[in-house]
Amino acid sequence: MGRFNEIKVFVPMKSEYDQANCHWLTVGIGGDTLVEKEFKTKYPECKIYGVEASPDQYLNFADYGTIIPFGVAVENGSFPLTLREGEKYITKNITVLSMASLLDEFIGTRKIHYMTIDIEGFEYSILEQLPNGRTLAEQGIVFCQIDAELHDFKNDKEKIKKFLHQFDMENSDYVPIYSSPFLTHQKVTFVNFRDEECLEAFDLSRLY
Length: 208
What we know:
Layout: E1 23-27, H1 34-42, E2 47-51, E3 66-68, E4 71-73, E5 77-85, E6 88-98, H2 99-107, E7 111-117, H3 123-127, H4 135-138, E8 142-150, H5 157-164, E9 174-182, E10 185-192, H6 196-201
Parallel strand pairs: 1-2, 1-7, 2-3, 4-6, 7-8
Antiparallel strand pairs: 5-6, 8-10, 9-10
């Protein structure tokens, strides 16, 4: 459980799966490491990484994993991003790494078992490239499970449905299994139900 009683919903790892192969990626540390602390206690051999462009938001993340001090996007470039500095949110032009470059350079694999993403609205541009035929899928990037904080929905159910429709089973290896309002945002958990290693690591059959 994170700040403001935020709940991140994930399917637990199979007890027989080798934790040494497990990778967790936090995209947007945001000054909150409660979930990483809990995860490290449960899965001590999993490798934890955190992407954060604002140094004052690292908190004690280094106690649990490796900090990647950049922003991330689908492609390399410079983008206006909303960042948390102290208790305020500001917009800055930030040089970011592509997801593929970041995974290759800092983690050494394009397969992530757990990702949690909270980057103040920029998450849409990343998540929308996961369905088959789109950039991240074509680059062989796989997330077994994703906890996403989708910003500025304000309980607009039609907007939520329109976004989630991109992840129907016909064109996506991902399916949403959990959705709940959180503050003015929407929390959604996606699972990859086709990748062989994801199926080896997690018992997803009970979700069908």
